C-alpha cells in the first residue's frame, strides 16, 4: 500500500484537490483536526485548538482513520494531512508534543506508513475564513513554513503543488502516483 500525504497551509485548496482525486477513483482518507474542532465546538468549546489536549485528540483520530483505511482495496491512498501536520500544528500553537503524538510519530516512522514524498499544496495568495479556519493570510504563511520545516525535519520530501487551475494541481499529483484501483463493476 502506498499512502501519500497531501498537506499545506489552511485555505490552500487541499479539499478541492482531494474531492477531484476522490471523484477520479483514488481512495481518500479525511483529515482529523477539522472534525475534532467541529465536535468540540458542538460541545460548547469555541476555540478547542487552544487546549493542549487538542493535539493528542487529533493524533488519535488520525491513527484510527489510517488503521481503518489499511483494509481498503487498491495500491494507493491519498491522506488529507498526517501526524506530521499535527506535529507542525503543535509547534505553531506552542503546545507540547504529548505522548499520543510522540508515539504516533514514532509508529509512522518505524513502520514507514507514509510515502517519503509529500504533496505540499502551496497557498493561493488569500485565505477564506470558516468556523474551523480562523487564520489570517499572514498567519497562514507562517503556518506554511512551520509545515515545510516539520516535514523536512522528519525526513520527508515535499513536492510543491503550485497555485493554478484545479486540473493542473491534480495532474501534478497524479504524475507521481499509480492510477486508482478500477471501480467495482455492478453485477446487476
Report on this model:
This protein has 188 residues and is an alpha/beta fold. Mean pLDDT is 90; it is low at 184-188. Helix content is 46%, strand content 13%. Helix 3 (53-69) packs antiparallel against helix 4, helix 4 packs antiparallel against helix 5 (99-111) and helix 4 (83-93) packs across helix 6. Strand 4, helix 6 (137-153) and strand 5 (157-161) form a beta-alpha-beta unit. It contains 7 helices and 5 strands.
Oligomer: single chain
Mean pLDDT: 90
N→C terminal distance:
30 Å
**How many domains is the backbone divided into?**
1
Strand order of the largest sheet: 2-3-1-4-5
Fold-level CATH name = Rossmann fold
Helix-strand makeup class: alpha/beta
| Biggest pleated sheet | 5 strands, parallel
Features:
5-stranded parallel beta sheet, 188 residues, globular, Rossmann fold, disordered C terminus, alpha/beta
Q: What is the gist of this entry?
A:
The protein is an alpha/beta fold and 188 residues long. Helices cover 46% and strands 13% of the residues.
Show the helix and strand layout.
Blueprint (H helix, E strand, L loop, with lengths): L1 E7 L5 H10 L4 E2 L3 H10 L10 H17 L6 E5 L2 H11 L5 H13 L5 E5 L15 H17 L3 E5 L4 H9 L14
Parallel strand pairs: 1-3, 1-4, 2-3, 4-5
